Amino acid sequence: MEETDEKAPSVIDRYYTRWYKTDMKGKSCEDHCVLQHSNRICVITLAETHPVLRKGSKIKSINYRISDGCSRLNNKVSGKSKRGGQFLTEFAPLCRITCTDNVEYTIFSCIRGRLLEVNEDIIMSPDLLLEKPSTEGYIAVILPKLEESKRVTNSLLTREQYEEVVSKRTTQQPQPC
């Protein structure tokens, strides 16, 4: 048998489709990634071009408290149909990340659906977000409505489209993100 240098695809690459939302809310380079599983579940993460991951920043805090009356940590779901989960729109804030240079980034849901869980582990270990953003450092898990699950990615970019946007940024901007 001939040896091959190719690695087996990761779990993410095998079971999830990557979708991207670039320049969230008009903020340059604040890109988000949505990992969509075939069972409709979507995992919200930071895209590799997000400033938190690119600048070599250190995270001071991650806060799931959106306002005085709304904390994503209070989200409780139960049962097969995931009753009780907070319903989110595309631009619903999930959390706020504050870096040690006091720059704050708001992470948005990017899709409509029911919030199943937030990743409380990154509150205690923010380095997970920096080291493993697509796996243990994810932000949240969202379940789109069944009838919307096919359309949920209409406003998102494929991997190829995302790479085109990133490529154009680096050629058009004097300073990369």
Structure write-up:
- The chain is of the alpha+beta class and 177 residues long.
- Helices cover 18% and strands 29% of the residues.
- The chain is built from five helices and eleven strands, in the order H-E-E-E-H-E-E-E-E-E-E-E-H-H-E-H.
- The protein is globular, with a radius of gyration of 17 Å.
- The N and C termini lie far apart (45 Å).
- This is Protein Abitram.
- InterPro entries: Abitram, GCV_H/Fam206, Single_hybrid_motif.
CATH top level assignment: Mainly Beta
How many separate domains? 1
The global form is globular
Order of helices and strands: HEEEHEEEEEEEHHEH
In short:
The protein has about 180 residues and is α+β, with helices and mostly antiparallel strands. The protein has one domain: OB fold (Dihydrolipoamide Acetyltransferase, E2P). Helices cover about 20% and strands about 30% of the residues.
Spell out the key features of this protein.
11 strands; OB fold (Dihydrolipoamide Acetyltransferase, E2P); 5 helices; 177 residues; 6-stranded antiparallel beta sheet; alpha+beta
Topology:
Layout: H1 11-15, E1 16-21, E2 32-37, E3 42-46, H2 51-54, E4 59-63, E5 65-67, E6 70-71, E7 87-88, E8 93-99, E9 104-108, E10 113-118, H3 121-124, H4 127-131, E11 140-143, H5 159-172
Antiparallel strand pairs: 1-2, 2-3, 3-11, 4-8, 5-6, 7-10, 8-9, 10-11
